[in-house]
Amino acid sequence: MGIFQHTSFYSGLAVFRAWCPVLLLIYGLASAEELPVAADHGMVVSASEHASAAGIEIMQAGGNAFDAAATVGFVLAVTFPEAGNLGGGGFMVARTADGQNLSLDFRETAPAAAHRDMFLDERGNVIDGLSLRSALSSGVPGTVDGLLKMWNDHGSGNISREALLAPAIRLADDGFSISASLADALNSSAVKFKADPEASRIFIRKDGRPWTAGHTLEQYSLAHVLRFISYSGRDAFYTQGCALQIAQKQARTGGLITIEDLANYASVYREAIVGTFRNYEIVTMGPPSSGGVLLIQMLNMLEELPFRQTHWNSPLSVHLLTEVQRRAYADRAVHLGDPDFWDVPVQRLTSHRYARERAGRIKPHRITLSADLSAGEIAPQESEETTHFSVVDKDRNAVAVTVTLNGRFGSGKVIHGFLMNNEMDDFSSKPGVPNLYGVTGGEANAIEPGKRMLSSMTPTIALKDGKTALVLGSPGGATIITTVLQVFLNVAVHEMDIQDAVAAPRHHSQWLPDRIEYEDGAISEKTRRELSRMGHTFAEAPRSLGAANCILIDEDKIYGAPDARRQSAAVGY
Ligand code: DON
Fold first, then answer.
1. Which atom of ligand 1 is nearest to the CA of 107?
2. For the purposes of burial, counting CB atoms within 10 Å of the CB of 365, is it exposed (0-12), middle (13-18) or buried (19 or more)?
3. Residue to mutate, 109, 381, 456, ligand 1, most ligand atoms under 8 Å from C-beta
4. CA distances from 233 to 135, 171, 177, 226 (A)
5. How many CB atoms lie within 10 A of CB 266?
6. What is the mean pLDDT of residues 562-570?
7. Active-site annotation, residues
8. Ligand 1-lining residues (CB < 6 angstroms)
9. Quick check: helix, strand or coil at residue 148?
């Protein structure tokens, strides 16, 4: 079994290997393996070594990539509670061994009693923190339904529900030794946990002292819930004991989720968004995520521009990327929302004709001010936590899954051991007012009962010459889409291997604020000077951009590339 794990947050910008031989040495010390991890039969790259290893065990026991993905998802709820979850939601994009494209939407929904102005005061102003830190911040969770659907509909049939959940139950019951990054995350979220008695009981140490790496985190209540799901399936969560507990706690603490909301929840298969770029076909997530539409739209625009001829992060390359990004994100704010509630013009936005019109106005040596594309103002925002994992099995079923509670540890409210999301913040609380990730929205993403809030999550699979070649995705709020775009371009245009493609420093712009954020090493000073003369403005990224746990498949091997920007582990066999 090949394994490689990164355990430090944001050690990573320096790890662009070609540029930093010293870190090559650190790799050498950290693991005997070369990166990316190469394997013949199966690969999992996730944010947790426990989750990746459990996924491989499922495959070794006869499971396929869908079985493994479901197990990885459940284990992440235990070992990566920052974002892995039962009380949140996510998306899956898959390409089956027999050539089917699948996309499963298990995004949270607004409760039936939700209404568009629920986060506004009587003067119509957004009430600070209500969509992030209160019981009202939670949407109806979708993860349990989604993970069980993956297993039930596309699993091998060799893995029982009990076997599927066994690794997660064991880790919750026995506890596991926490990493430095989980210790940091727990310590820095103590204020959030203190606001909730059940969260305090689990996530704050009995003696009140800080967590450090190596401490054991036991989660008995969570083990109990997982065991209940393993016996009774989705009903355990959506109509029986858990549902009751969620509804009761929500009612007690001012939330809106009822037992009916939970009983009515269903994850749904959506038509995957498909586009092309050179000899690649890209299969990605459609609305209610904005990710896939924007990704295809940006790739289409780049095809209309002299991007292919550019060198990695040369002035022209950064300029063209920024110009297509600002156009795509301007469209996001107006056109994207839950397709069950809003007529999203997917065909038009992802058409080559539209890309030609939009890209036709991009000048190679002159910027377009974002204000000239549309109006609005946004304050700088911090990103938080989500997690992406990629799975490939021996038959080359490929599964890309991104799950989230939205903010790190979600709302910080715990119900019988599991954390509830604060995904309601992804709706547009008020037109033009930015959310946690600095993105704005309007009517298309207004709150309505039963509606799914717009996402940026972009689980993606790319085929090369018709064969499954890349499994991609990332956390990072609004920066997810540009992260996936750049990792893909690093392979498809700049011909990097998958590890370099993931490690290469990134930059991001999103229409508003009108600036390019960049990681250390992403854009040289000389290039920044040149681009500044054209009118671009820059800011150092406040934290790393994304954490792309990706896989590349070639003729005979599978390569797992963990992203050192955050904790991650690639395990193959
Ligand atoms: O669905 C979304 O777009 C956000 N809730 C994702 C949040 C996220 O990626 C935070 N990660 N760093």
1. 1
2. exposed
3. 456
4. 26, 19, 28, 10
5. 14
6. 96
7. 386
8. 383-386, 404, 406, 423, 426, 455-457, 475-477, 480
9. helix
Helix (H, G, I), strand (E, B) or coil at 271: coil
CB atoms within 10 A of CB 88: 30
For ligand 1, the distance from its centroid to the CA atom of residue 426, given in whole angstroms, is 8
Q: Report the candidate in 341, 318, 332 with the shortest Cα–Cα distance to residue 523.
A: 318
Question: Which region, left, alpha or beta, applies to residue 302 given φ > 0 means left and ψ of -120 to 50 means alpha?
Answer: alpha
How would you label 451-481 residue by residue, b for 16+ Cβ within 10 Å and e otherwise? bbbbbbbbbbbbbbeeebbbbbbbbbbbbbb
User: pLDDT tens, 295-340?
Assistant: 999 999 999 999 999 999 999 999 999 999 999 999 999 999 999 9
3-state helix, strand, coil in the chain (%, to 5): 40, 20, 45
pTM: 0.94
Q: How far are the Cα atoms of 66, 146, 255, 258, 283 from residue 69, in angstroms, in the given order?
A: 5, 11, 31, 29, 18
Residue nearest to atom 1 of ligand 1 (CA): 455
CB 382 within 8 A of CB 453: no
* H or E stretch at 78: helix 65-79
Tokens of 533: 């003369």
402 DSSP β-pair partners: 91, 388
Ligand 1, closest atom to CA 456?
3
For the ranges 15-19, 89-93, 375-379, 443-447, which has the lowest average pLDDT?
A: 375-379
Q: Round to whole Å and give the CA distance between 247 and 256.
A: 8
For 515, residues 6+ apart whose C-beta sits below 8 A from its C-beta are 509, 536, 537, 538, 539
Q: Give, using CA atoms, the residue closest to atom 6 of ligand 1.
A: 477
* Contact (Cβ atoms closer than 8 angstroms) between residue 189 and residue 408: yes
Mean pLDDT, the chain, whole residue set = 92
Ligand 1 pocket: which of 9, 404, 421 to mutate (most atoms <8 Å of CB)?
404
| b/e 46-78 (16+ beta carbons within 10 angstroms → b) | bbbbbbbbbbbbbbeeebbbbbbbbbbbbbbbb
Looking at residue 375, what is its pLDDT?
Answer: 30
What residues are paired with 560 via a beta bridge? 37, 551
Peptide bond preceding 36: is omega within 30 degrees of 0, i.e. cis? Answer: yes
Token pair in block for residue 263? 């009983």
Nearest-CA neighbor of 96 among 41, 156, 149? 156
Dihedral-angle region of residue 497 (phi above 0 means left; psi in -120 to 50 means alpha; beta otherwise) = beta
Q: Phi, psi at residue 469, to the nearest 5°?
A: -125, -35
Question: What is the rounded end-to-end Cα distance, in angstroms, of the chain?
Answer: 5
Other C-beta atoms lying within 10 Å of the C-beta of residue 566: 29
Orientation angle between helical segments 479-492 and 291-304, nearest 10 degrees: 40
CB 486 within 8 Å of CB 523: no
